[in-house]
Each structure stands twice: as C-alpha cells, then as structure tokens.
Design goal:
By secondary structure, the protein is an alpha/beta fold. The protein contains 15 helices and 17 strands. It is globular, with a radius of gyration of 22 Å. The model has no long low-confidence stretch (mean pLDDT 95).
C-alpha cells in the first residue's frame, strides 16, 4: 500500500508506513522538482542532523545560564553558540535566537519596544510588505495603529518622500523596513534620517536578503537600524525560525522579554541547534560564493523572463527574488502557479503593486533563485527555467506541454541530486 523510502529519511518510521510514505513523497518532490518559492531553501545534512537530534526532548525557558528548568548545561552551550555566531555573522552585539518564526520575532520586538496602540509605519502588503508588519488579519494589526506606505506607481520602488511625509503626519513610534515581495535594495540610511526626525525607532526585517547582508552583497541594516529581525531559512539556508539582532544594550531586556514570555513559551532547542549549525555554515567561505551565485542566477532568470516578453515589477531585482506581472498576458498568478506545479516548478502566486485582482487570483508570481542555487544550478540552468516558465505562461492549459516540461525538469534535477544516501 505504501512505498517507503529506505535509508536516512525513513529510519525510525518503519512502524508508521503512512507517515513514512508521506515524508518519502515530499523527499521525491524536492528531488525531482525545482523550488522557486522565495520562502524556501534546501538545508544541509548538518542542519537536518542537529534539528532531528535528542534536543527535541529538552525543555528550557529563559535565557542561557538563566533558565527556569534544570539540566540545561548543554542546551545553554548550544544556544550561546548560536547567539555568538549570529552576532559574528551580522556584526552586532546582541542576538536572540529563540523566535519560532520571523513573525514571532517581529511580534516580540513590537511587544517589547512599543505600547499597545502605538503607531507603526510599515510597508503595505499590497506593495510587497509582510503580513506580520501590521496586516489587519494579524494580532499586530489589531494591537497597534498601522499606517502603511507603498511604492511609486511610476517606478514601483520605495518613495522616500512619501515615507517622510507620512512619518511627519502620523509621528510613528516605529518605522519598519523590509518586506515579503520587494525585489530592490533599501536605503536604510535615508530611513534612519526619517526615523530620527520624528523620534521613531527603525526596525529592519531582512528575512529575504539576510544571506546577502551577511556576505556584503546588500546594504547592511546596521548601524542605521535600532533592531533587525530575520528568518533563518530563506537566504540563510538554515533551520526554520527567526532571529532578533541589536546593538543598544538598553533595549536588551525589553526585546528579550518581548520574545519570552511575551509572545512565546519554551525554546525549541532542536531548532536552535539547527540555527547554530546553519549560522556556522554561513560563517564559512563557501557561503559568500553561494550568495554571489544567488544574485547572478536571479539576474539570469529575470533577464531570461524579460527577454521572452514577461514584465518584471520594478524592471528587475537586486536580490534573490523577483515579481512577474502577468497582466499583459491576460492570465493570473493562481492559474499559472497551478500549471507550473504540474510542470514540476514550484512558485507562489502573489499580488503586484496596485493590483486590481484579489489575493486569491492575483496578477503576479513571486520567484526566487535561492533553492535552485543551493542544489547547484547556474546561470545556464536558470536561463532554461525562464524558458519553461514563459512557455507555461503562454499555454497554462496545454497538458501535453506541461508533461513534456515536467520530464525535462526531472532530467535537469537528476544532474543536480540532493539528499542521496
């Protein structure tokens, strides 16, 4: 009834064939398909080993060496290692590695540094911002007064004059930079000037470009930001979770208490171990080469799409992600994303700035070079991927064409194997 993967990924699951089969199916999907979703990446065996370790059994609360539970000597050493590596990687003085997600990291910072009802100036989700920055469907959106800035209709890039005007009008306590679907570099120095003018804190969420920051390929939020948050997967290619980084010691207690007990409880020590492993990898020389390839491959993909008549929001990308506007093609992101999945290409539908269509069937696609680069693809492979995407956009309902591309995708993936025992 079930075909169970033999080897590393099925150890210990022999007594649960249904679960083993589902995990084996996901492994096959990752091996045989191409991941282009910006929120995903491929971790190393080192990260998998750390995150699947006996640390799953350990419960701790509080900060290292200041726990509420006993038996924490090794947990303390692991979390302290993760903190030290995070600070070294990003050149800052303090880090909290406990957030279960980037959204938790953001919520903890807001709770620790702001009062309920304070005004936050953040990027509108419809323009590329992240829902955890104040979307009305989230607790953040309910607990604080959110003022949203967007992008210029002409350039589809941040309009610093508009942000400054909104800041002067609304006098926010915090300005948030960074988003979920903004493909361009951000001028943190200019945003800090605006924040200082109105007496606001500047928080940067660098989840989608943290790896580029760590390797000098993107403007650094420090010293301009008061506090920086990020996820540890995506461009950091690590365990799923979040980080908070800062330099001002006077913020330490407020940020730490905002995380615990503010927005979450016990530390997931197996995940912190996975973070420590991936942060250690990010400090190795090869991580810089990986991120340089991420940028080059993203440009290759963007140029390949543009050369085949697809419009890119803002005209291109400065990082690993990009947005494709399907409006000129008379289709939508939901339709094309489903067709691409049938062809072995995983993407996500996404709204574009000033999108007249709803989130359920938006006008755009969000793409990323992160995971493909992690498995070894180069510019030539991403040029080929651009051709496949363009072909699917032109004929998303042509099942024979989708099947042909799926075969070609599997052939490409076979040349760049992952997780082979």
């Amino acid at each position: 009834m079930y075909e169970v993967e033999k080897g590393y990924f099925s150890v210990g699951l022999e007594g649960d064939p249904a679960l083993a089969a589902a995990i084996s199916g996901e492994l096959a999907r990752q091996r045989d398909g191409i991941e282009l979703i910006a929120s995903e990446n491929l971790v190393s065996r080192r990260v998998l080993a750390a995150q699947g370790s006996v640390l799953t059994n350990k419960t701790v609360e509080g900060l290292p060496y200041r726990r509420y539970y006993g038996g924490a000597d090794y947990a303390d050493a692991i979390e302290a290692l993760a903190v030290e590596r995070a600070c070294r990687l990003f050149g800052c003085r303090f880090a909290n590695v406990q957030p279960h997600s980037g959204s938790n990291a953001n919520a903890g910072v807001f709770l620790g540094l702001l009062k309920l009802g304070d005004t936050i100036l953040s990027m509108d989700v419809a323009a590329g911002g992240h829902i955890s920055h104040g979307h009305p469907a989230t607790l953040t959106g309910r607990d604080y007064r959110i003022v949203r800035y967007g992008v210029s209709r002409r350039t589809e890039r941040l309009d610093l004059d508009e942000i400054a005007s909104l800041a002067r009008e609304h006098r926010p306590k915090m300005i948030v930079a960074g988003g979920s679907a903004y493909p361009r570099a951000i001028d943190f120095e200019a945003l800090r000037r605006i924040a200082d003018e109105v007496g606001a804190l500047l928080m940067v969420d660098m989840a989608h470009f943290a790896g580029l920051v760590a390797t000098g390929l993107h403007p650094h939020p420090f010293p301009h930001a008061h506090v920086v948050t990020t996820t540890t997967y995506k461009s950091l290619r690590g365990a799923r979770g979040g980080l908070v980084l800062w330099n001002d010691e006077s913020l330490s207690d407020r940020i730490n208490h905002g995380i615990f007990p503010g927005v979450q409880g016990s530390v997931m020590m197996h995940v912190v171990a996975g973070k420590a492993a991936s942060l250690g990898e990010a400090l190795e020389p090869g991580f810089g080469a990986y991120n340089q390839a991420v940028v080059e491959n993203a440009r290759s993909l963007a140029e390949g799409l543009a050369g085949r008549g697809l419009r890119l929001v803002s005209g291109g990308t400065d990082c690993g992600l990009m947005l494709v506007d399907l409006t000129p093609k008379g289709t939508d992101g939901g339709t094309v994303a489903k067709a691409l999945e049938a062809a072995g290409l995983a993407v996500n539908k996404n709204q574009i700035p000033f999108d007249p269509k709803p989130p359920e069937a938006p006008s755009g696609l969000r793409l990323s070079s992160n995971a493909g680069t992690a498995r070894g693809f180069g510019k030539a492979e991403f040029e080929t991927i651009a051709g496949w995407i363009a072909a699917v956009v032109e004929a998303p309902g042509e099942t024979a064409g989708l099947a042909r591309i799926a075969t070609e995708v599997r052939e490409m993936c076979a040349g760049f194997p992952i997780y082979r025992d």
